[in-house]
Amino acid sequence: MISSLSMVSAFAVFFLSCSSNVQAFGPVMRPAAIGGTRYVNNDARPMSSSVLLRMAEGGPPQYERRAASAISNEEVGQGTYLIRVAADDEKPVEYEPGHVLALEILNPEKGEDDEEEWLRGPYTVTRSDDSSFDVMYRVVGKKSQTFSAAVVKSTDSINNNARFQFGGKFKVPILEGIHHPEQLERIVLISTGVGVGPQMGFIEQALCDDAFAHIQIDLYAGFRNAKDVCCSDTLNDLATAHPDRFSWEAIVSDVVGRTSDPYALSKIANHAKKDSDSVNDKTATATHYHLIGNGSMVNEFKAGLKEAKIPDDRVTIEMYFNHKEIPRPDTVKSITDAVLKGRNSDHTSSDTKTEKKTTSPAV
Predict the structure, then answer these.
(1) What letter does residue 92 receive in the DSSP assignment?
(2) I want to staple 357 with a disulfide (CB 3.0 to 4.6 A). Which of 158, 249, 257, 279 is the partner?
(3) How confident is the model at residue 3 (pLDDT cuts 50, 70, 90)?
(4) What is the Cα–Cα distance from 198 to 190, expressed in whole angstroms?
């Protein structure tokens, strides 16, 4: 079954849970590795509210909350921010791109005499070092508005600092979910909105990993309009520094349609590599797909790739919302046809470069 985690349960448990020092979060998860064996949660089905309530009352994992401060909070696209949060303690911060954690901020609207209220939610890690981590978020409601207005920590205004807490480590990080990289020739990353954040972190990670040195990484990041495009400078710098290993393009739906529409699919097909003759396991393909974003995109690509006979372990996903979105049959067929076309085409290595774009592609 295709690797995934339903984020619905995580959100529901957050809003149902209390503010104790040890906090409940999401569905029961296994650690990323048990006894040397990688484990990926495979249940992508949304859970009912009654099931979530029972989980919140009785059995979800617990996490210890750690005090933290924001050290940067930059708008990287229209209404989209990249916040860096540092732990206030001396313990190491151990996350990788694609991990999901609990991030909380104290509600500043509460007065001194009011009981503290923490605004909390699950967020996917973009990148991390030993003392801090980044997450990308879009301003869509009270919690994210509070995040975007957070006062960044400084030596002269420490007492006015926004108070953060974080904890937990959920989901398998992107790099760890890509099995047997020695069998791969290409990794295709497809995202919508803030899903580009953890994929960008993975790209930075993979470009520094010898196990991925032979793999071409192509990113197709979907945005509604040109002003929404995020982190183009960072992605351009990565493409310039690694021209033979990484390329990316912003797929702007106002101009060329969505990532599942003909323009983007033509890119995926035209630059796809054939299955490698050197692949040891003949059931595997030479391409791994990672999908992250809204349920419409993820469900349609998941269905299209399945119809194209892409093995389940060559597709990893993370879905942010619209989990129950029903794939459009015509779109699923278009995705299947594009993938099969790419696998059956005979391209030279020079054909595997995607032209870099940071705004809307030409039409």
Answers:
(1) P
(2) 249
(3) very low
(4) 11
Q: 106: alpha, beta or left, given left = phi > 0 and alpha = psi -120 to 50?
A: beta
Instruction: Give the global pTM.
Output: 0.77
Rounded CA separation 103/362 (Å): 39
Tokens representing residue 237 in the block:
């710098």
C-alpha 217/C-alpha 352 separation (Å) is 10
96-to-78, 100, 202 alpha-carbon distances in Å: 26, 9, 8
Instruction: Give the single-character DSSP code of 244.
Output: T
CA distances from 207 to 75, 106, 251 (A): 25, 37, 23
Q: 122 - beta bridge partners?
A: 102
Burial of 286 (0-12, 13-18, 19+ CB in 10 A): buried
Geometric angle at alpha carbon 98, from 226 and 216, rounded to 5°:
70
Residue type, 326: I
> What is the share, in percent, of the chain residues with pLDDT greater than 90?
56
Collapsing DSSP states into helix, strand and coil, what is residue 11? helix
Torsion from C-alpha of 135, 136, 142, 146, nearest 10 degrees: 60
Give the span between the Cα atoms of 267 and 221, in whole angstroms: 12
**Spatial CA neighbour of 201 closest among 97, 123, 76:** 97
Q: Is the predicted pLDDT of residue 350 greater than 50, yes or no?
A: no
Phi, psi (rounded to 5 degrees) for 159: -70, -20
Predicted local distance difference test score (pLDDT) of residue 321: 80
Q: How confident is the model at residue 124 (pLDDT cuts 50, 70, 90)?
A: very high
CA distances from 223 to 51, 265, 284, 292, 307 (A): 34, 15, 31, 13, 26
| Cβ atoms < 10 Å from Cβ of 281 | 11
Integer Rg of the chain from CA: 21
Alpha helices, DSSP H, located in 207-294: 232-241, 253-256, 262-270
Rounded to an integer, the average pLDDT of 12-38 is 33
